[in-house]
Amino acid sequence: MFNQMKQITLAAGLTLAVAAGPAGADVPNVATDVAPVQSLVARVMGDLGAASVIVRPGASPHGYALRPSEAGSLQAADAVFWIGPSLTPWLEGAITALAPDATVVPLLEAGGTHLLDFRTEAAFGAAAHGSHDHGDHSDHDDHGDHHHQGTDPHAWLDPQNAQVWLDVIAQKLSDLDPENAQTYAANAQAGRAEFAALEAQIAHALAPVQDTPFVVFHDAFQYFEHRFQLAAAGAIAHSDASDPGPARVAEVRRIVQDSGARCVLSEPAFNPALVQTVIDGTSVRTASVDPMGSDIAPGAAFYPALLRSISAALTDCLK
Questions:
Q1: Which is it for the CA torsion 34, 289, 165, 24, positive or negative?
Q2: To 10 degrees, what angle do helices 68-75 and 2-12 make?
Q3: H or E segment at 287?
Q4: Is 125 helix (H, G, I), strand (E, B) or coil?
Q5: Strand ranges of the sheet holding 214-218, from the earlier edge strand across to the other edge
Q6: What's the predicted TM-score (pTM) here?
Q7: Over the stretch 137-186, which tens digit does the pLDDT of each residue have?
Q8: How far apart are alpha carbons 198 and 293 in whole angstroms?
Q9: CA angle, corner 26, sides to 23 and 30, nearest 5?
Q10: Average pLDDT of 98-115?
Q11: Which stretch of DSSP H or E encloses residue 200?
């Protein structure tokens, strides 16, 4: 691993002149793991600077090959904001090797974050799901996603978590850049107000389909379901997007039939044939939804656009 990281570091050196370069002398260089986090950082930084994103659009964060330019962004970073190793276990070693002096902030560990456990069963519901609501942040023994236990990392899909994280981002950036602390705080405050209004708008839009069952491709939407009290009935694949076996696919097919599911959500990054297998012979609708928002332009407007896109897809598919 060390030799591999050393090679990445050497290759990245060729791109550092491009990857580096904050907007101002005192504004930190910031790297983020995925587009939703980059959007929150962009909301806080405003016109002061820009944050890079490591996982390119359309790629799954659960398994990823780091490019030299992305390694260069890490090496140039004064701060790294990421969800944590339960979403991108491969990134932990890269951060240690390439950004040893950076301020590293795993957002899942931020106080006040609303956390949910992995669901291990294909079927959801009071008797079937394996998740437990921890409310505010509490420690877990295992954050490894490949064991299908520990914390579900898709916590950005709860807009109340996004509000918490705006404050965390603003405080960490202020620690690094005290001269712009007031700007970071003001931007975070404005973002919290925007996201609170967004939550109310989405709740209103989803109210008519709140009790209509649906199935997701991979179990990435639990936080969205809980926040807006939706009737998800099951998932074809686990939260870490590992390939489901034939028995699980057959079980989800039964769930679709028995629950009266109106819609099965597919995702652009995964095999559509599995969705077709699950709905074959039924009148169930499908809709493509991406929890990473690969078709949305990056930046401060990305996060509200992502949540609106999920809400719109569900509303259209379930009505």
A1: positive
A2: 90
A3: strand 285-288
A4: coil
A5: 232-237, 214-218, 263-266, 285-288
A6: 0.85
A7: 333 333 333 344 689 999 999 999 999 999 999 999 999 999 999 999 99
A8: 17
A9: 60
A10: 98
A11: helix 181-206
